[in-house]
Design brief:
The protein is α/β, with parallel strands linked by helices. The chain has two domains: 175 residues, Aspartate Aminotransferase, domain 1 (Alpha-Beta Complex), CATH 3.90.1150; 258 residues, Aspartate Aminotransferase, domain 2 (3-Layer(aba) Sandwich), CATH 3.40.640.10. The protein has 13 helices and 15 strands. A hairpin with a 2-residue loop joins strand 11 and strand 12. The N terminus is likely disordered. Pathway: Amino-acid degradation; 4-aminobutanoate degradation.
């Protein structure tokens, strides 16, 4: 199959079992966006609430491997994975087959009414694979934000305490409680308050911008603030992303996370690792907590868990997870059978297809290309991240001040040239790379070549 349809032709039918048969190369046959996408975007504007934005207004017909093909026949390099969701690739054949089989059996019963094996099997896999050898339990939900809310509910019920600490630059979701946990106001929080109470914020370790503090020093700073302003006796939980996601792919200095976890354990505070974006092979380990030897009390997962279907989970110590009374957790669609079937097939792909090692290989390719880029352009302030979760922070080379305007121009230029990249960061000056783990080295290098060209002309 080739992506050569003209705007006047009907869209090409996707390959059976999804996109792996798509040609794995960038190919543009119209401007981006093309005429069909422009037409559909006009319909979107008329039908969809304005608050639901579309970063790159192309409309997708098929996707797979490391590319996305739009309805105009353009094939773009995918360096976003739907925000770290399609780690096993889009329309991975094993996932499609598992979902098809489940749809043919039944689509829904509500697990809290009548159970089914898929939910139990996903919980067993999570209990086995998440860090730590202690006895665990899991509960399944629909989205990352929903799972974060339930982790907070569980921690509060277990401890009998109410206060929660999140960190600078955090992103935990868009629901009322998770907006309170999230640090960045625009676009996530502005105008949507008042927010849930008893949520406090502590300083993060941000090596590029916190004056060279070691992990231990940054942890002491955070703990001192927590003890003075909140008090361990009032604190139910700390929640933190092992690598910040929307906040800018910030990797805390070594020892920071471990010191926080040790303090929490010593003070009866539940340590929650939000691995919604970092989980499932994304960072070159099955979970990012493994890089620091962390064993969280509770771990929140979503995004990469089910190959693109809506599923999330809270997994943790049995005594904490079992604290809530029967009926206190659940939801109509939580752990729905179709998503569970997808998750089982997806998790098997991470385990059996070498995708953890592939994330490390992707890091090696991206670091090589981005390091060469940084040597040529001093506006690249820092390259950071792990595995297939890397980012560049763009700055004024003289002052190191964040350059959000440059970041926006570079992302827009990359989109126009057929490369899907995402921006992030509290200051809006970070370009993040989250390619599917099925992408080829050739596509990675082509994508960064486009970025280099756009940056040079910006």
């Amino acid at each position: 199959m080739t992506a050569t349809a003209s705007p006047s032709q009907a869209p090409v039918t996707p390959a059976p079992l999804g996109g792996p048969e798509l040609p794995q190369k960038r190919q543009l046959v119209t401007a981006i966006p093309g005429p069909r996408s422009i037409e559909l975007h006009a319909r979107k504007t008329a039908a969809v609430a304005r608050g639901v934005g579309v970063t790159l207004p192309i409309y997708v017909q098929a996707a797979g491997g490391g590319v996305v093909r739009d309805i105009d026949g353009n094939t773009l390099i995918d360096l976003g994975s739907g925000i770290a969701v399609t780690g096993v690739g889009n329309s991975a054949p094993a996932v499609v087959a598992a979902v098809t089989e489940q749809v043919n059996q039944f689509t829904h019963t509500c697990f809290t009414i009548t159970g089914y094996e898929g939910y139990v099997e996903v919980a067993e896999l999570l209990n086995d694979l998440t860090p730590g050898n202690h006895e665990k339990r899991s509960a399944l939900f629909n989205s990352g934000a929903e799972a974060v809310e339930n982790a907070i509910k569980i921690a509060r019920h277990f401890t009998g305490k109410q206060a929660i600490v999140a960190f600078d630059h955090a992103y935990h979701g868009r629901t009322n409680l998770t907006m309170a946990l999230t640090a960045k106001s625009m676009p996530y929080k502005s105008g949507f308050g008042p927010f849930a109470p008893e949520v406090y914020r502590a300083p993060l370790s941000y090596p590029y911008r916190d004056g060279g503090l070691s992990g231990a020093e940054a942890a002491r700073r955070a703990i001192s603030q927590i003890e003075k302003q909140i008090g361990a006796s009032n604190l139910a939980a700390l929640i933190i992303e092992p690598i910040q996601g929307e906040g800018g792919f910030i990797v805390p200095a070594p020892g920071f996370l471990g010191a926080l976890a040790d303090w929490a354990s010593a003070n009866g505070v539940v340590f929650i690792a939000d691995e919604v974006q970092t989980g499932f092979a994304r960072t070159g380990a099955l979970f990012a907590s493994e890089h620091e030897g962390l064993i969280p009390d509770l771990i929140v997962t979503a995004k990469g868990i089910a190959g693109g279907l809506p599923l999330s989970a809270v997994t943790g110590r049995a005594e904490i997870m079992d604290a809530a009374h029967v009926g206190g957790l659940g939801g109509t669609y939580g752990g729905n059978p179709i998503a569970c079937a997808a998750a089982i097939a997806t998790i098997q792909r991470y385990q059996n297809d070498g995708l953890i090692e592939r994330a490390r290989q992707i890091e090696a390719v991206l670091r090589e290309e981005l390091t060469a880029l940084a040597l040529d352009d001093q506006r690249v302030g820092e390259i950071r991240g792990r595995g297939a979760m890397l980012a560049v922070e763009l700055v004024d080379p003289a002052t190191k001040e964040p350059d959000a305007a440059l970041t926006s121009r570079v992302a827009t230029g990359a989109h126009a040239d057929g490369v899907i990249v995402l921006t992030c960061g509290t200051y809006g000056n970070v370009i993040r790379f989250l390619p599917p783990l099925t992408i080829s080295d050739e596509l990675l290098r082509d994508g960064i070549a486009v970025l280099r060209k756009v940056l040079a002309s910006s």
